[in-house]
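Hi R.,

Here's the chain you asked about this morning:
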Amino acid sequence: MKNNLKSVRLSDEILDIVQSYRGEGFNEKFENLVIDFKKFLPEHEAYKAALDENIKKQKETLWALQTKIQKAEKIDLIVSRCLNDLNQF
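And here is the predicted structure, written out as tokens:
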């Protein structure tokens, strides 16, 4: 038994979304949409948290690689200068 009687105002876009959802009538479609969203949200949040963690690790890896590249470029510059000095003798 459904005890709650509510009236809502919807934009055309939202009405189209609800009407295109699975179910027999507006109320059932709206209920299915809300229930499915509630079930989906925790899974989505967990997935988002995993992606955020992955992004954090990838940024750390990128930072470490950029640091190594900078060091290698400095070493290359020093070696080039040394070779130039040796070639002048």
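One quick note: The first helix runs from residue 12 to 19.

Cheers,
M.
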